[in-house]
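Hypothesis: this fold can be encoded by more than one sequence.
Test: take the structure tokens below, design a sequence, compare later.
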């Protein structure tokens, strides 16, 4: 299934102009994120949910490579704005060298979150590498029994060839096409109960090829949502994407209304 959500690019803007605009937005977003980065370096203290927050499954947010939970300041606020959903962000260790290790730590965090909130299932939202950590947990560690919906933002599901100079890092090597981890994720996953929603952008320069951020797997209940006019760093921060993610977590079929709502964003 595929949907298109136009975000910030008018239909009359040439592709070269759209690319420049997306690049300029990335620079602005990067500057803002650098200012906030230090605020997200420490692991978040688990908090007791508000009584009303039990009406929807809790949401756990997973950051990308070399990042931390500060990337989700705006998304987190929006997801918890109505008080019906408990939202937390999880920092996996910056010293992590194996995505599978991060996924096992995530499994423990999800169990703790379910126990603390009294919920049987959670929703996961992962940006970039965080989306793969969540997907590995769902597919390979039995996480589909706990995860209702997995949303990924700019995640290299089929591997990316971007930034070849970083191949010395073991985690980066796991993100390359044909890696052992990606081969595991391409294997059959019959009966996987988790619904997956993958947001991808034609201007995401860290996805090479760009379509790698789509989920293409015969056994997964996957919806691929194309975003236009937004780069990699802006995906978890742009208001239109945030609105679409919120609708994705509200249930199947709600993304169509998100597309209508975001078409007018200038």
């Amino acid at each position: 299934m595929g949907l298109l959500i136009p975000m910030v690019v008018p239909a009359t803007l040439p592709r070269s102009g759209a690319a420049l605009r997306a690049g300029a937005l990335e620079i602005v977003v990067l500057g803002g994120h650098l200012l906030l980065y230090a605020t997200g370096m420490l692991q978040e203290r688990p908090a007791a949910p508000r009584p009303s927050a039990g009406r929807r499954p809790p949401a756990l947010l997973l950051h990308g490579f070399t990042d931390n939970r500060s990337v989700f300041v705006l998304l987190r606020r929006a997801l918890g704005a109505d008080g019906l959903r408990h939202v937390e962000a999880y920092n996996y260790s910056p010293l992590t060298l194996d995505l599978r290790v991060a996924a096992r730590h995530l499994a423990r965090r999800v169990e703790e979150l379910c126990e603390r909130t009294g919920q049987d299932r959670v929703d996961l939202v992962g940006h970039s590498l965080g989306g793969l950590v969540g997907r590995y947990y769902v597919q390979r560690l039995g996480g589909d029994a706990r995860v209702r919906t997995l949303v990924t933002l700019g995640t290299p599901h089929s591997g990316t060839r971007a930034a070849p100079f970083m191949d010395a890092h073991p985690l980066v090597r796991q993100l390359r096409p044909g890696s052992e981890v990606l081969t595991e994720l391409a294997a059959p996953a019959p009966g996987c109960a988790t619904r997956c929603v993958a947001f991808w952008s034609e201007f995401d320069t860290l996805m090479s090829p760009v379509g790698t951020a789509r989920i293409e797997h015969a056994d997964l209940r996957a919806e691929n949502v194309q975003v236009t006019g937004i780069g990699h760093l802006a995906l978890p921060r742009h208001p239109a994407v945030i609105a679409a993610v919120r609708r994705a977590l509200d249930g199947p079929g709600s993304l169509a209304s998100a597309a209508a709502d975001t078409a007018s964003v200038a």
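The beta strands are 2-6, 59-62, 87-90, 122-127, 147-153, 195-201, 221-228. Confidence is low (pLDDT under 50) at residues 5-13, 256-266.
Hypothesis status: open.
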